[in-house]
Design brief:
Two copies of one chain form a homodimer. With 168 residues, chain A is mostly helical. Chain A has a domain of 91 residues: Winged helix-like DNA-binding domain superfamily/Winged helix DNA-binding domain (Arc Repressor Mutant, subunit A), CATH 1.10.10. Chain A has eight helices and three strands; from the N terminus they run H-H-H-E-H-H-E-E-H-H-H. In chain A, helix 2 packs across helix 6. At the A-B interface, helix 1, helix 2, helix 3, helix 6 and helix 7 of A face helix 1, helix 2, helix 3, helix 6 and helix 7 of B. Chain B binds a DNA duplex (30 and 30 nucleotides) through helix 3 and helix 5.
Chain lengths: 168, 168
DNA sequence: AGCAGATGCTTCACATGTTAGATAGTCTAG
DNA sequence: CTAGACTATCTAACATGTGAAGCATCTGCT
């Protein structure tokens, strides 16, 4: 544990890794996913594939690709590959709309609905375990805070990163 | 918005997507990274590469690959590729230890330290913007909650999931 | 010494994240 | 009606996430 000042100059002004909000969020989310992944793996589903299936249970007509991207927090390129994969596996259908051929509607097949019926309860059971762990009170406390964080808009803040207050 | 009961049976018992803790964590973290990525991109660094560089500022001797993985929350395979990449770029050195040839020590080069000196302040400035956005009070409130979530151990919880767990 | 098993790290294979650009369909000004 | 702008989605290229397997190397035990 040497103390070379020249090497640690920048480090001194930096927050410790542990207290970094991005790292704390990452760490918490990884703990959540470690809980879900084994169960999803037994159904040959990745976390993202399950997000897509789950989002589609809210409608019978299906969702457009754009809506699906928004609901699942997946970017276009990822979603394109995932949908193609799940269509190949017979779990989803993909049909382009008639009044606007640019858009495509994605929906569950009967097989897809049966997958959801099989995975859904197991997913909820794990979620219940998590809620029990932190307590529903603390859960109700943390969700609004996370929602607030999600609303942080970098554009507003990053317009003058240099001096921190070149407000023009 | 049809209401086919057979299709939405499973959905009824599922939490809404928005209230899902994993999704909330993902959403919050994405907002954070949207703030950092453009700045890191200007220095030709990904978020993960920056995590590695930053972790190495805490020592002059460097860290073993395993320690680095733990500090940065990166898995072995990712870290192997990232270190190889950064060694090629002259930012890191990688030397195997003498008393145990399996282990390798990773350290910043002078060039690496100058990169950290350039990026560190900008990174801190963005973090300050975020802290201002939520307020340091709410930040101090959320960090312990996240830390608690990170401590969730799936193994303990899944030992008694009920009839979903065929533990015999 | 010598061998079975543990350990640290890497490589492989496949899925996703991220950015930039391509593609095709639609809309609007003129 | 039509050229150019706009939109929704996809493809390409590269980096990372993830689980499983491979490879040295080390350690404990006999």
């Amino acid at each position: 544990m040497t103390r070379d000042p020249s090497a640690s100059t920048a480090a001194h002004s930096m927050r410790s890794f542990d207290q970094s909000l991005p790292m704390a969020l990452l760490s918490a989310r990884e703990a959540m996913m470690r809980a879900f992944r084994p169960m999803l793996g037994r159904h040959d589903l990745t976390e993202q594939q399950w997000r897509v299936l789950r989002a589609l249970t809210t409608t019978t007509d299906g969702l457009e690709v754009g809506e699906l991207a928004e609901n699942t927090l997946l970017l276009g390129p990822s979603l394109s590959r995932i949908v193609a994969n799940l269509v190949d596996r017979g779990v989803l259908t993909r049909t382009s709309r008639e009044h606007d051929q640019r858009r495509a509607l994605v929906a569950l097949t009967p097989k897809g609905r049966s997958v959801v019926a099989a995975v859904g309860p197991a997913s909820e059971a794990i979620y219940d375990q998590i809620e029990t762990h932190i307590g529903s009170g603390r859960l109700a406390e943390v969700l609004p805070l996370l929602s607030d964080l999600a609303g942080f808009d970098a554009d507003l803040a990053s317009t003058h990163v240099g001096e921190l207050d070149a407000s023009h």
